[in-house]
Structure formats: structure tokens, C-alpha cells
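Appendix B. Raw example, untouched.
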Amino acid sequence: MSLPEKLALAQTFGLVVLGIVASYIDTAWFEEVYTVEDGFVEWLTVLPLVVVIAFCLSRIIGRKEPGSVRFMTGTILIVLFSFFVAGEEISWGQRIFQVQSTGFFKENNSQQEMNLHNMVINGVKVNKVIFSQALTVGAAFYLLALPLIYRKSRNIKELIDGWAVPVPRLYQIISFLLLFGVIGLCPSGKRAELLEMGATTLFCLIVLCPFNPIQSDRELLNNPKQS
């Protein structure tokens, strides 16, 4: 693990622990200052996603030769995913640019904001079904099952590498599990803000420092020992 990785982990868990302690000592400060919308924690949630976007775009633009269709598609999908999550986190800049919500969002969004994760459809919260339950299942598969499959199956390994899918390293998996565990110690309903901040930082570390070498098909052919 490199020094930047260690510093990123130390900062992330330091801020999470600080938030948990603050939620017990001064709940009002924790909810109205520390985790307030467009506040310190929220921007630390968005920043790693911006880094991921910049890193992936530089991987595409800075190449001397174009990668394979699979490689380019996989990388672009990571960019789009990161852009979507970042946009949702700041409600697509609604508060920054002081844009008023339309009648549709006022009626169907639990916070009357212009985003999808707070939408309520027929009494069902989208955030709970998609952004909580489905995302939890997806994260569990990605963190626990994928690394094992990657190591066991050569065909799966070549498929994952070809699509430029970053495989998490052991310390990243342990960090995610630890994050999920300690968040449960926070009594405030805004503990999700701490989870999001920690999760995006760890996601950034996975993309920048994955277990598998992210190479195009052409590079894998030219460097068979690394495949």
C-alpha cells in the first residue's frame, strides 16, 4: 500500500470517527453543520468521484494508441457512473445555481429536490429500493464474490481485464467492511452521509489502485506475462 493510499484511508476513517463521536456529543452540530447539505462532508463525497472521472478520461485521452472497444466502453461506463452519482449527490447543482424545483419534483421527491434517489413512486422510496437494497447487493457481490471469481477462473479474469473492471484489493475490501460496521455506531439518521463519503473514497482507491492491471486487449497481447 502506497503512502497516498494510507493517507486517504487515515483521513477517511478519521473523519468518520469524528462524525460518530460528534453525533453523540452534539447531534445538532453533527446534523446541521458537519453533514449539512452542500457542506464539508458532502463535498468530500463528490471530490473522489471527480478524481475518478479525471483519471478515467486521462486514461482514454492520453493513450498513444486507442484501446479495444471493450476497454473503452468499460472505462466510459465508470466515468458515467461516477458522474451520475456525483450529480445526484449535489442534486445536479440545484442549490449551487439556485434553481427552483418543478412541480413534478415538489410532488414526487421526498426532499423536493431535482434528483432521482429521493423520488417517491406510488409510496415507494426509490432510494430504499434501488440506492440502498439493490446497491447493497451489488456492492456485496463486487467486494466479496468478484475477487474470488477473478482468481479462480482464467476466462472470467480475461473478461474482467478486457472490460477494464477494477478488482478490489484485500485492504480495500476490509476497509469497506469496516466502514459498514462502524457506521452502525452512529445514532443519527444522517449517518448515511458518512457512509457515502467513505464509500466514494474507497471506490476511488479501487479505480486508481486495483488488484488487476487495467490494460487494453492490445496491451495484454503485447504483455502476455501480465495477463
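End of appendix B.
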